Amino acid sequence: MSARFTGKVAIVTGSSSGIGQSIAIRLASEGAAIVVDYHSHPEGAEDTKAKIEAAGSKAITVQADVSKLTDVQNLVDQAYAQLGGCDILVNNAGVEKNAAFVDVTEADYDMVLNTNLKGAFFLTQAFVRKLVAAKKPGRVINISSVHEDMVFPNFASYCAAKGGMRMLMRDLAMELGPVGITVNNVAPGAINTPINASLLANKPKLDALLNNIPLGRLGTPDEVAALVAFLASDEAAYTTGSTYVVDGGLMRNYKEQ
């Protein structure tokens, strides 16, 4: 594989498993040094780090609760202290909570919005402040969801967070374009990750979903990572302010069962 990211440093939040882990390994395989962020699974972060080192790149692991401003500032500080800077930010960390709208608690709402939206907002701010001060360009890639645009009954807080992420991306693309920082979203649909384990085990539910996906299968984390790698690269230097959907056609064919 090419070395598009030699000399670059990337922070990938939530990179101890799933899509985040695949993104971290993909960027590392093309030369980037990686800040592997995790919330509560250090063993997963160590696994990601080992795979990055096996790919011939460098990684550090940093524990962070992205909803806490001191933690997100520390992620950026550690990138500079241990890896010499930071050029690419991938806001991947996310959570969802299944509940009918009338049953959503304030605590669950706060958890979902603070992790998915507040975390991305203030980590991007910390990342961008350093670049602006140094007059350096950069890349921000948010891992959003088809649900930034597509309804998801019983996940109102998640949809609100992802819809907010869409508008945040559009606004920041305008604000940060003049200083050479691009901002884009990648919106996965149904991807084969640990978070979907219960879905994969429920054949009737899985079959109903696959019936809604024109390509007839779930996506893989590597397919999401490939698009992130493009958006992080110099090839995407003129690409900003858009959402790139990776969903096998689901959004174009979705209907409530």
Automatic annotation (TrEMBL):
Coiled coil: none annotated. Keywords: Oxidoreductase. InterPro entries: KR_dom, NAD(P)-bd_dom_sf, Sc_DH/Rdtase_CS, SDR_fam. Residues 8-189 form the Ketoreductase domain. It holds the Pfam family adh_short_C2. GO terms for molecular function: oxidoreductase activity. Belongs to the short-chain dehydrogenases/reductases (SDR) family. This is Glucose 1-dehydrogenase. It comes from Granulicella rosea.
